[in-house]
Amino acid sequence: MIDPHQQPPESREQRDSGDAVPSSKREPGERPRSVMFLTQLTVLSLLLHVSGSVVSIAALLSTPMLESVRDRLASQGVPAELMDNDSLRKSLVTATLGNVVLGLLITSAFVIVLLGILNRADWARWGGLGLAAAFALWNVWVLVPGGDPSPTGTIYQPMSVTIAALFLVVNLAWLLVGFNPAVTAWFRRRV
Q: Which end of the chain is more exposed for a tag (fewer CB within 10 A), N or C?
């Protein structure tokens, strides 16, 4: 005889998933607004990082940067014969390649965090915390007078400062939104 109060057996996926929340609770349409805002802030952070990297790479390859490096080295007492254009350009190309590699690694970290957020993985909030905190510190340093490494008097410096200011605001907003109670509860599958 069939008991009408008996629950149907769980599927193998439900038993093995270890999730206390049914999959219907994890549908994207049910994301709180604060989680959607966190996703938007993460995408905006990614775009600001990429645009900052592009400006940085363009500045490194510019003639004003070559002159800026020459002036800095001269002020430190480096003899003029050690500062020929070829040597300085090679060092700036090496710095540019390092900047590209670092930029790609950081972009990958942003994409991983974004995918984690979209998949409701709580670790993504902690990864985002690390990125937001690190970039908040970096952007404060860029905004401090004398902190911006871009050559002064060029288009790169105001662009770099503007991106840093926007990025700082986005980072601080990310830190506030990423750890508010509604977002925390959603990522921990309590809602």
A: N
Q: What is the DSSP string of 116-165?
A: HHHTT-HHHHHHHHHHHHHHHHHHHHHHSTTT--SPTTSTHHHHHHHHHH
Distance, CA of 70 to CA of 54 (rounded, Å):
23
Euclidean distance between CA atoms 167 and 173, whole angstroms? 10
Residue 68: inside a domain, yes or no?
Answer: yes
CB 164 within 8 A of CB 139: yes
| Mean pLDDT on 124-136 | 95
Residue 48 maps to a domain:
yes
Q: How many residues does the chain have?
A: 191
User: What digits encode the pLDDT tens for the residues 132-171?
Assistant: 999 999 999 888 877 666 665 577 888 888 999 999 999 9
Are residues 139 and 7 in contact, defined by beta-carbon separation less than 8 angstroms?
no
42, 130 in Cβ contact below 8 A? no
Pairwise CA distance, residues 149 & 107, whole Å? 21
How far apart are the C-alpha atoms of 13 and 18, rounded to whole Å? 9
Domain count for the chain, please give it: 1
